[in-house]
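Thread: "does anyone have the structure for this chain?"

Original post by V.I.:
We have the sequence but no experimental structure in hand. Need at least a predicted one for the grant figures.
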Amino acid sequence: DGKRKYRVEHGDKYEGGIVHRRFLMNIISVVQDYFERWLNIDLHYWLRKLPTRKRRLIRIWDIITWNDDADVFIMGHIHTPEVLIWVNEQEVIKTYVNTGDWVEHQTYVVIEDDTIRLKNWQLEVERKNSLSEGDSESD
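Reply from O.Q.:
Generated one for you, tokens below.
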């Protein structure tokens, strides 16, 4: 019937390193909070920029390889909204979607008729407001 198979997960199990050591993460969070208040800088923004594009692509490739039974893999653990679409060796369209986050990016995913769209809530509100303003001007 042409329907795609979806897998939706939080994605935390694909994160490596210290993220799985809760005690260590708590200590790092306290130190980060202290430095951000003391130095008045956003360390989270700086730390988020550390991973290179190559490392991100390798992570995405690993996630996709581990979830080969799905045509579409949707997760949100990594807060950067992104979509990656490709055709595999069997000529099946595969899609990776990271929903991003609600606080900084205000992004979400909509699936209609097997079409996946990554949307930004603020942009959608602005678009609807501009459309309704255009309708009221024509009246």
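V.I.: this helps a lot. Strands lie at 6-8, 72-75, 82-87, 93-98, 107-112, 115-120.
O.Q.: and DSSP finds four helices and six strands in the chain.
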